[in-house]
Write a structure and sequence with these properties.
48% of the residues lie in helices and 5% in strands. It is mainly alpha-helical. Strands 1-2-3 form a three-stranded antiparallel β-sheet. Bound molecules: s-citryldethia Coenzyme A (SDX). S-citryldethia Coenzyme A (SDX) is lined by residues 238, 241, 272-274, 276, 300, 308-316, 365, 367, 370-372.
Length: 438
């Protein structure tokens, strides 16, 4: 077997115990986190694939955007902790950091905010897409459709090989998806769409487009606008999660960025992923009273019961999701600002967290509250229906998706993602004509 790694690289040797054959594979080390074994030449050298169906131990790419230490409950964006960013930055500052590599200076911040504000309106024709949906359509079904349709309106920024066009598409998506999200909400309640206002911040404008009406001035709550911005920051990016991996895989086929983000929205919708925030509220409502918590914890532990404790557990975090900690505090602040005393949902969620974190099943499996456990309580208190929760997640994650897509498109070479498989089907067999089939 030829040595795959050059002489001064660290290597990992795989040996076939049956044949004694071995294969020396390069080990690559990043800034933080586990090193990786580069297996790109494994099949050519050994005739074997690796097997990792849900990618529990597989790195799909190199990335400089986000680092997660699941054991320690650490989340960094471009090296900055999520606690610092959520406490000291705005969502558009974090978006700038994810897109361009660092937090903006004063001039860069003003320019970026102006660029995004410039693109907040959507083509008037887009309004007609909404008319085709029933008013009770799930907002995520509308988002899947209208975001993919955006590519029909922006032929001047679909050349994915032109950096200026990639940047223009990124700005358009970051700016227009909040407008479309607000339109899905307005459409569901039969109110007129509100046009974006460029005198407002990103999060103020979003709240205005959702809760403002043409008939009277909208009174902005600084606390709610701050909470909205914080929620967007906490949901902006999260390494190679399912929806981001979907966006990257779609992008690897050279699909346009609008189609890639629409694919990410479809993946995020699942209750195991971004749909969990809606499922948490539905679960809390189903539990109803604190005395029924033990009954539902028993169901969550029962392998025969498909019920899972929504908002708990994570593929990577085996400690408290740092975002959940920030959201738990924000929930108290928002409810207090709204004059909501002893919110029953928050009381229930906190009791559920307390009991679960004392239960050996959850402790042994390191199942802690994740980002979705408390977000829904805040969003409900802010006036959003549960059906809009995952849409709000998508508004924020669009920044991560398009930043990850941009990072991939800036790689020196892009190969289409194409996993292999372990075939366990029928062996090759002769064709059976219809007359002879049993
Ligand atoms: C998000 O990847 C990301 O980064 C996602 C995200 C992001 O920002 O992009 O963080 C956003 O999607 C957060 C997760 C939201 N989903 C939920 O809250 C749904 C409830 N959670 C579970 O479905 C589950 O925890 C997952 C899907 C999140 C993780 O699934 P895994 O990786 O398959 O879980 P695991 O292998 O770590 O589970 C270990 C054990 C298993 O039991 P055993 O086979 O060992 O007996 O824990 C059990 C699981 O059955 N388990 C749960 C559980 N989560 C895991 N049991 C009950 N309730 C749960 N919530």
């Amino acid at each position: 077997m030829s040595d795959q790694a050059n002489n001064n690289e660290k290597t990992f040797t795989l040996t076939n115990d049956e044949t004694g054959e071995s294969c020396k594979l390069p080990i690559k080390t990043g800034t933080h986190g586990p090193s990786v074994i580069d297996i790109r030449k494994l099949y050519a050298e050994t005739g074997h694939f690796t097997f990792d169906p849900s990618f529990t131990a597989t790195g799909s790419c190199k990335s400089r955007l986000t680092f997660i230490d699941g054991e320690e409950g650490i989340l960094l964006h471009r090296g900055y902790s999520i606690e610092d960013l959520a406490g000291k930055s705005t969502f558009l500052e974090v978006a700038h950091a994810l897109l361009y590599g660092d937090l903006p200076n004063k001039a860069e911040k003003e320019d970026f905010e102006k660029d995004i504000r410039y693109h907040t309106m959507v083509n008037e024709q887009v309004h007609y897409f909404f008319r085709g949906f029933r008013r009770d359509a799930h907002p995520m079904s509308i988002m899947c459709g209208v975001v993919a349709a955006l590519s029909a309106f922006y032929h001047d920024s679909l050349d994915i090989w032109e950096p200026e066009q990639r940047e223009l598409s990124a700005h358009r998506l970051i700016a227009k998806i909040p407008t479309l999200a607000a339109m899905t909400y307005k459409y569901s309640i039969g109110q007129p769409f509100m046009y974006p206002r460029n005198d407002l911040s990103f999060s103020e404008n979003f709240l205005y487009m959702c809760f403002g009406v043409p008939a009277e001035p909208y009174v902005m709550s600084p606390v709610l606008a701050d909470a909205m911005d914080k929620i967007f920051i906490l949901h902006a990016d999260h390494e190679q999660n399912a929806s981001t991996s979907t966006v990257r895989l779609a992008g690897s086929s050279q699909a346009n960025p609008f189609a890639c983000v629409a694919a990410g929205i479809a993946c995020l919708w699942g209750p195991s992923h971004g749909g969990a925030n809606q499922a948490v509220l539905e679960m809390l409502a189903e539990i109803g009273t604190k005395d029924r918590i033990p009954e539902f914890l028993a169901r969550a532990k029962d392998k025969e019961d498909p019920f899972r404790l929504m908002g708990f557990g994570h593929r990577v975090y085996k400690n408290m999701d740092p975002r959940a900690g920030v959201l738990k505090k924000a929930a108290h602040d928002v409810l207090e600002d709204l004059g909501v005393k002893d919110d029953p949902l928050l009381e229930m969620a906190m009791e559920l967290e307390r009991i679960a974190l004392e239960d050996p099943y959850f402790v042994e499996r390191k199942l802690f509250p994740n980002v979705d456990f408390y977000s829904g309580i805040i969003l409900k208190a802010m006036g959003f229906p549960t059906s809009m929760f995952t849409v709000l997640f998508a508004v924020a994650r669009t920044v991560g998706w398009i930043s990850q897509w941009k990072e991939m498109m800036e790689e020196p070479s892009i190969k289409i993602g194409r996993p292999r498989q372990l075939y366990t089907g029928e062996p090759s067999r002769p064709y059976v004509p219809l007359a002879k089939r049993k």
